[in-house]
């Protein structure tokens, strides 16, 4: 994962990646800036030092479950913002990245600050029972909120309020006074519109994650793909009947596109490396094996991932040319990752599980990011005739 993690450096959202066992191996600058900590501190301790003690147990349990099942991870918890040392609610999500065989090779995750949504929801629930003065204050609060908020009235969902962020999403257009069907005719029949009808009809609060839309952002008829987290909060009149809806939206388009770009890069890398005539094995910054191409698997008779340097020789049955157990720290790949050496022409013997042996020769070197950080190592292996 870390080989392409620098693609996230310029993103304004909090992005992190982890190895298959869940160990963090990258956080982008948005993480370190938000929490006022170093990347090394987060990688060493994870989120435990930043998570509210009351939320930690559930977060750890859900992460452990995701690692075991390979299903996407999602949890809400409070994290300690560095600037004011205040705990703020976040939604953390992580998605597994898989190789061609379906094996999880890492995780890409994001943390999204949703503290304002929490407070807006609480405010919205209280507002329904307040006087008109409180309702106007609530309107002012929503109009200035940094997340997209739309308030509708009636079963036809006529827009009563569309705050600055909601207008920004659609190119600055003011849709107040229009029904949602009039403002966005291309969304007729979309599942999101059916969900609004459901919330109005039942009075249930609804939450939908990573909803895909196509929006005419500029009013020119050109539809652009986008993704949102949405919360629909029914608003009630003095008698308790549902009179409207508050729709809170957090745009995830940058997150989704970044994740897809990483998946594309990984797929491109795998396609190139899988078709090389030589075997290729790649590790992460800690030396754990993250990739083995088909030729390397054929040479060794196996393709074991997440193997640390001290177990290279044992896991892959590697011996010296004379047939003695190979010291792990003298293997070319181990020398590259542990001592930053560039190794050429290294030789060793492979004993495969079927009893056959191969004399191998390989070149290894460490891998460096653009800013000079070691992000892994690679060895290129070929069979040689004794």
UniProtKB/TrEMBL annotation:
A Pfam family (short name) is PAS_4
Q: Which intervals hold domain PAS?
A: 272-301
The PAC domain is annotated at 73-126, 209-264, 344-386
Q: Which InterPro entries match?
A: Biofilm_reg_signaling, PAC, PAS, PAS-assoc_C, PAS-like_dom_sf, PAS_4, PAS_fold, PAS_fold_3
Domain of life assignment: Bacteria
Q: Which residues form the signal peptide?
A: none
Q: Write down the SMART domains for this protein, in alphabetical order.
A: PAC, PAS
Protein name, as recorded: PAS domain-containing protein
